[in-house]
Specification:
This protein has 644 residues and is of the alpha+beta class. It has twelve helices and 34 strands. The strands form nine sheets. It has a four-stranded antiparallel sheet with strand order 1-22-21-20, with no helix packed on it. A four-stranded antiparallel sheet has the order 2-3-4-5, with no helix packed on it. Strands 6-7-10-11 form a four-stranded antiparallel sheet, with no helix packed on it. A hairpin with an 8-residue loop joins β27 and β28. α4 crosses α5 and α6 crosses α7. The chain starts with a helix and ends with a strand.
Length: 644
């Protein structure tokens, strides 16, 4: 090949690379200003043209990860792991693991996370994983958590999240088509968020939803409001926009800030002012008041933040001013994202995180706050069904009524575009189960009828026990209520029995056994019903004695009077002699009894017989026990059982 041609191709290659690198730089600039949609388009075009690098794979994955599009994020993180393993930093191990977990590839997620834990042993995320990894499966399938989940914003437009209590209504953020202005957020390609207010129907579903207040909503983001108990003051999140002007920080970003507003006499909101600890160069967002309204909690990436965003708080001083921001510390904050705090009336802090070990994406966690406002004790994952494999965040709760709302994209396939608001409420589940037993013998009674009644004696449910005498009532009882459980077995003529029960105040399983008194004569014991004396045998003999013939004559009479009657003869021995010999002896006694009846004219097919040896003694006279001849005689007997 001529030298000139080689040179031409070389410089052409250099030119192509330079052009691609120029595009990558443009994409990086968009990425750094959180214009993820624009950055993503450029990165995809660059990769399509054959250019790739660890940086491109990382940031392309991030543009999906931070929009909760985990299926797409996996594609690029996986290529990063396979093609550039030496360039995979711990944070990308974590993001890849989270993404794989969110799409259900748990083993892949586990493998990556174990590598992360080995490489980053000093990190909180690694420590949490090593301590709790075995809990994930239980958290994801914990049926003891008896919450019911209901999508209450499904019929609304846009991405809906971040609910807050406002009297008997809910205020929330939405990217509805009816938001103020016509701008599109370059982070996710959706319209900018506004605050909305919704009334609630009897199921807590949003109805008559409308824009919150024109003095609050602007052409840019508003979200995550909280209100004082008197409803006169609100704190909310907004882009760095006030008095019609948008301001940028040193990094050319329009950051998030917390604003305060006061309700006016005419019912509108005014006196909007930003809080003094805001800053143009970092985000301060998602305010939450503690129970006595003495502290304001929020999330921020301000200097001193341990990860991507941390939870902070400030004291609200008596004169209305604010103390210095205080980081909640490493027991709550991790190297990843902590955000969207909410404090219950019992001073429990609920927050969202993808740093604490969870089911995938963002999960909701709970920790107690002490009198100083700091976290106290262990951070708990709220488990399924409040958490899912995708993003769950922005939870608010009325702990007394055991109900609340949370945000999640669990039912969608478009990441943050699928964010909806869900109502959750505790439906207390009680399972009542047990055995129906013979009061005298303790043996189970199969095919007994068990009835569940309320405290007004009204029927709730009725079932028949199985062959093991077991019954169970599930999902038909409520917590902290009185019921009556009644058992009967008319076929075997047992006396019915019933027991009252007061169910526990929380979901649980209750065991209640019911004992039935047997009839004086069991329904199938012909000897008892005919008032027969036992058929006794002499020691080591199987022939029918003269006194036994008197009793057998009664059996014979009954068999002749009732041609449909069939009986089974059970014969027994005392304990003297070996077990095997006694079994043979009892079998001979049973058969001699049967043959006596056959000789008297009873058809053989109406009779059956079996010997039980010394297995069913009716007194204490077992092997090695000293007994009188009269006591041993009681065990040498034949019984007559009516067959079905």
């Amino acid at each position: 090949m001529p030298y000139a041609k080689i040179s031409f191709l070389f410089f052409l290659f250099i030119g192509i690379c330079a052009a691609q690198e120029s595009k990558v730089k443009k994409a990086n600039d968009a990425y750094e200003t959180y214009s993820f949609i624009n950055a993503q388009k450029i990165y995809l075009k660059v990769v399509e043209d054959g250019y790739e690098s660890p940086q491109v794979f990382k940031k392309l994955g991030d543009t999906y990860y931070f929009n909760s599009e985990y299926k797409e994020a996996v594609q690029w993180y996986d290529q990063l792991l396979k093609k550039y393993p030496s360039a995979v930093t711990p944070i990308y191990q974590h993001r890849a693991s989270q993404s794989f977990k969110s799409i259900g590839e748990y083993q892949k997620s586990k493998d990556i996370m174990e590598a992360y834990a080995q490489d980053s042993r000093e990190s909180y995320i690694a420590g949490s994983y090593l301590k709790n990894a075995g809990q994930i499966e239980k958290w994801g399938s914990n049926e003891s958590k008896s919450y019911q989940i209901l999508n209450v914003s499904r019929g609304l437009n846009g991405s809906d999240f971040g609910p807050s209590f406002y009297g008997d209504k809910i205020v929330y953020a939405s990217s509805s088509k009816n938001t103020e202005g016509s701008g599109v957020n370059e982070w996710n390609g959706l319209p900018y968020l506004d605050l909305y207010i919704a009334e609630l129907d009897e199921q807590g579903v949003f109805v008559r939803s409308k824009a919150f207040d024109s003095n609050i909503n602007t052409p840019y983001h508003e979200s995550s409001a909280c209100f004082t108990k008197d409803g006169q003051t609100m704190y909310f999140t907004r882009n760095n926009y006030i008095n019609g002007k948008k301001r940028k920080g040193k990094n050319k970003l329009v950051s998030l800030k917390i604003f305060k507003a006061v309700k006016q006499d005419n019912g509108t909101w005014g006196q909007v002012e930003e809080l003094p600890f805001n800053n143009d160069s970092y985000a301060v967002a998602h305010p939450a008041l503690n129970s006595d309204e003495s502290k304001l909690y929020f999330s921020s990436d301000m200097p001193g933040t341990l990860g991507m965003s941390d939870l902070w708080y400030v004291d609200i001083l008596p004169n209305g001013s604010y103390g210095n921001p205080k980081n909640l510390g490493s027991s709550v904050n991790t190297e990843a994202r902590e955000s969207l705090p909410f404090i219950s009336s019992s001073n429990h802090l609920y927050f969202s995180s993808d740093g604490h070990l969870g089911l995938g994406g963002l999960d909701v966690f709970k920790v107690s706050l002490n009198e100083m406002g700091k976290a106290s004790g262990e951070v708990f994952n709220l488990e399924s069904p409040l958490n899912s494999a995708l993003d769950d965040f922005g939870l608010i709760i009325n702990e007394h009524e055991k109900t609340g709302y949370l945000s999640s994209n669990r039912d969608g396939e478009e990441g943050s575009r699928s964010d909806d608001i869900y109502r959750f409420y505790e439906s207390c589940k009680i399972a009542i189960s047990g055995l129906v037993l013979d009061e005298q013998t303790g043996e189970v009674i199969p095919r007994s009828t068990v009835t569940l009644l309320d405290d007004n004696n009204q029927l709730i449910s009725q079932i028949v026990t199985d062959e093991k005498g077991f019954y169970t009532f599930e999902d038909v009882t409520e917590c902290d209520r009185q019921y009556i459980v009644r058992a009967a077995n008319d076929a075997l003529e047992y006396e019915p029995n019933e027991k009252p029960i007061v169910t526990p105040k929380t979901s649980s399983a209750v065991t209640l056994n019911l004992e039935l008194t047997p009839p004086e004569c069991p329904v199938n014991d012909l000897g008892c019903r005919l008032d027969l004396q036992p058929i006794y045998f002499d020691f080591n003999k199987h022939n029918i004695r003269t006194d036994a013939e008197v009793e057998l004559a009664k059996i014979l009479s009954a068999l002749k009077e009732y041609p449909q009657l069939k009986i089974h003869i059970e014969s027994h021995t005392d304990s003297r002699g070996t077990d095997s010999y006694n079994e043979l002896l009892s079998d001979r006694r049973a058969k001699s009894t049967l043959e006596w009846l056959v000789k008297k004219g009873i058809a053989r097919q109406r009779l059956s017989a079996k010997g039980y040896g010394e297995k069913q003694l009716i007194n204490k006279c077992s092997n090695g026990v000293s007994c009188s001849e009269g006591e041993h005689q009681l065990n040498r007997r034949s019984m007559f059982i009516i067959q079905d």
